[in-house]
Amino acid sequence: MKLSKRLQHIEQMVTADYNHIWDCCCDHGFLGASLLSRQAGQNIHFVDIVPELITAIESKLQEFFPYSISAWKTHCLDVAKLPLQQYQGKHLVIIAGIGGDLMIQFIDAIQQKHPDMKIDFLLCPVNQQFALREKLIALKFSLKNEVLVKDNRRYYEVILVSSTSDTHKEISPVGHDIWQSVSVEQASVVKQYLDKTLKHYKRVQQGSTVDIAHIISAYNSKT
Q: Are 168 and 136 in contact (CB under 8 A)?
């Protein structure tokens, strides 16, 4: 099972020793299965709200991981209702492949339900990155890692954050590390993404009554 470039980067960012990793909106379960293969966490949870997907994943896991060292469990439920309190230890919640607006709703719900738990979130929104980052800042989350990925002509920000505040690791509304590059290829990806993002917000500004000059200014500071 070959992961897409986007999923590969998400998978590689799971490095800490987690007791429970929640692969949310898991679709066909490829990411969770890859984490299970390398025993990235003691327990891998596959979460999706579509019953048919969860049934298919359950069948595949029973076939390919009958004697896995890491335990696995499937959950057919809304991400906003993750039963984290039922499981002791360190949690990583992975949410990818959905819009930033829905991601904000999920994170809000999880935080309200578990206000005293220390939770890491690994996030990869398909849009609304600025709004998501502003929400994470408002929640006083701290940054652990972030990368920019180009996959199949689309650009993705992958953001690893903690619900624990840390003034030395504050989150930027437009990102910081994602604009750094160590290769000519990545420098090109960074420039393309910045150009594309600025063009998008300038188009939005022209047809909008809402003033988003501060967003454009924030991205312009990266040029």
A: no
Give the Cα separation of 141 and 122 in Å (integer): 12
Q: What is the DSSP string of 103-167?
A: HHHHHHHHHHH-TTS-EEEEEE-SS-HHHHHHHHHHTT-EEEEEEEEEETTEEEEEEEEESS--T
Residue range 18-44: average pLDDT?
A: 95
In this structure, what token pair is assigned to residue 82? 């993750």
C-alpha–C-alpha distance, residues 84 and 110, integer Å: 9
Domain boundaries defined on the chain:
5-177, 181-223
Tens-place pLDDT, residues 73-112: 999 999 999 999 999 999 999 999 999 999 999 999 999 9
CA angle 197, 162, 151 (to 5 degrees): 35
pLDDT of residue 210: 85
Q: Which two tokens stand for residue 71?
A: 């335990």
Q: Residue type for 154, please?
A: R
- pLDDT, one tens digit per residue, over 189-204 is 999 999 999 999 999 9
Classify 5-177 by CATH class.
alpha beta
Q: How many CA atoms lie within 13 A of 214 on its CB side?
A: 6
- The whole-model pTM stands at 0.97
